[in-house]
Each structure stands twice: as C-alpha cells, then as structure tokens.
Amino acid sequence: MTGEQVFGLILMIGTAGGCGLIFAGIGLWASRSSKPVGFWTGKEVKPETVTNIPAYNAENARMWYRYSVPYFLSVVFSIAGIWFAWANIAVLVLTTLACTLGLWWLIHTYRKIEKRYIRS
Fold it and tell me: Across the strands, what pairs with 118?
C-alpha cells in the first residue's frame, strides 16, 4: 500500500465516516427525544403543532439513519479500493450523490413528514 493510498483511506474514513456518524447521531437523538426534532433550518417545531410526537421523531430518525448509509458505504468502498480500483469510483459516485441528490432527498422526505404530522 502506497502512502497516497494510506492518506486517501484516512481522509475518507475521517470525512465520510465522520459525516455518517454525525447523521446517524442526529437520528439517534431524534429517536430518543421527547420533544419534536426539527430539520435544522432554524425553524422551531412547537410541540402543540405535532399530532404524534413519537411517530414524528421516529420518522425523522429513520430519515437521518438512511441518509448516513451512503457515507458509511463510502468508507467500506474506500477500504475495498486498496484491492479494487473500481471501488474508488464507487466512493466518488456515492459521496457525490449523497451530497447532491441526498440533500434533495432529505428536504423532500422532511416535507412529507411535516405534511403528515404538523398542523398548520
């Protein structure tokens, strides 16, 4: 293994793995919170506007857990990239999609959760 491969592996484990842990951590926090968890837009979700707080938080948690998956997969493919060149391309594709389409998916999913659980 070359120094460049070691550096790339450490970088991907730190960045993609770190992002995955942060997003999974938000999901864990949402699943354990008794107060409604917002979407981090600065807009507070008032408990009296949520029809079912445990279900609302559970859906938020699932959303964040799912969003962490491509980041964790990027770490796995980074490790596989030591032996398989195609895995490095998979890392690039996964992280690019997670950072672009993944953000759209987060917003879209949260809006669906809002429509289901938040009274106007």
Answer: 50
